[in-house]
Each structure stands twice: as C-alpha cells, then as structure tokens.
Amino acid sequence: MSSEGKVLVVDDEPNIAEVVRLYLEHSNYEAILLARGQEVLRTIINEKPNLVLLDIMLPDISGYELCEQIRKMEAPFHQTPIIFLTAKGESIDKLRGFNLGVDDYLVKPFDPNELIARIKAVLRRTIQVPMELSQTQNSSRKWLEIGNIVIDLEQYRVTVGGKRVELTPKEIELLYFLTSHPSRVFTREDLLGYVWNFDFTGGTRTVDAHVKNLRKKLGQHDMWCIQTLWGIGYSFEVVQHV
To answer: Signal peptide span per the entry (predicted)?
Structure first.
C-alpha cells in the first residue's frame, strides 16, 4: 500500500484515468480506478479511500447525484473528501458542486501536477488525528466552545447543544476559522485565502455557498450567529456570553 494513502478515481475516459493513475503512483498514492458510478459506494466502504476523484458526466449516474449519495453515507464515510475533475467548468456547475459538499473542483483539460497539489492540499485540511493521539495532546488540540457550540477541528466534529451536526470538512474548517476570530469581519477574498489556502477557482460565491450551508445545518441560536455585512463579508458574532 502506498505510504500516502488511497485515491478512488471515478472517470469513464480511459486515457484520463490512466494519466491520473500514473501521476498518483509517482506521488506515492495508491490509485483505485472505476469507470462507472454504481460501484463507488461499495468501494468506499470496502477500500476506505482517503479521497475520491469524481467525474460529473458518468455513463450510469451523474457525479452530482453520486456526491450527494456519498454525503448521506454513514459515518465516517460521509466525510470522505471529494474533488470533482470534470469538463463542466461553468460557475453554476462549480457552485452546485460546492452546495453538495465537494471539497475542490478542477476543470478538464488540467495540469496533472496541479491535480496532485490540490489532492495534497485537501488531504492536509481533512486528515483526522487518531483518538489516542488527540487525547495525549489535549492541551494543544484545536478545540473551541462558544455558548452551545463545540468545534473539534482535530476530530472534525461539531456539536450544538450536545447533538452532533453533520458538516463537510470544508464547512467545519470555515466555521472553526470564523469562530476563532469572533466579531472580526472577513471579506470573501480573505476567507478564500485563509480557509482554501490559495486563489480558488470557484470564486467568492464558493464562500457564500458554504456559509449558506452552515446556516441551514446549524440553525438559528440566541447566543451566536454568522453575520453578513452586505458588500463586505462575514463575521461570527457572539450575541450573549454564557
């Protein structure tokens, strides 16, 4: 097994799949290739890939639908990072992908070296620390509690009022970043730089989509909220300290 982990590649174009496989193996990843979507969920359960590289236009199922199915899987499989690798490059396509919980989006034709860099970046952001390690390093854990919300970035776990809220890894990272700087306003460009780590091709609407998802999943609370400053950006506001 590769020392860097497994990547499940779902693409029905043999030439592209083979190029991706070669670059993954050169970068010390194990590549698992599928040309159809029907075996993806079963493969995720059996092989436990670290990341899924997913085409949107598959012969048997839409990549959008498949992404939605993955996000509805039981824990921990529902948090498997997903990168769309597709010829569909319109902004509306990207926004739809991020609304479904995809972690990154790369348009064909693509630079294989950029693909590897994006895979590494996503895995750096989403890798989970084993429980025994996080317990021994409790003093340095990335953990926040504000009112009734608890965010554990090392375990990628968010609870509100003691109940776990199922968020994607990127949604958790965005939430953690905002709550780490209460009352500080960040522009969309700021958040792209701090949370996505580079000039992300999805544009600033990616941030809007993630904030919208966070609000929907977290619900409304009297103690805190994600505030919109129209024409500027977002901030995490503590309404009542408890």
So the answer is: none
Tokens at residue 34, please? 């599928």
* Coil, helix or strand at residue 36: coil
> What is d(CA 30, CA 9) in angstroms, rounded to the nearest whole number?
10
User: What are the tens digits of pLDDT across the range 102-123?
Assistant: 888 889 988 999 899 889 888 8
How high is the pLDDT of residue 172?
A: 92
The pTM (predicted TM-score) of the whole model is: 0.61
Alpha-carbon span 202 to 97, nearest angstrom: 10
Amino acid of residue 58: L
66-75 contacts, C-beta under 8 A, 24 or more apart? 66/10, 66/37, 66/40, 67/97, 67/100, 67/101, 67/102, 68/100, 69/40, 69/41, 70/40, 70/41, 70/44, 71/100, 71/101, 71/168, 73/41, 73/44, 73/45, 75/166
Q: How would residue 127 be classed by pLDDT, with cut points 50, 70 and 90?
A: low
Encoded tokens for 107 = 């348009």
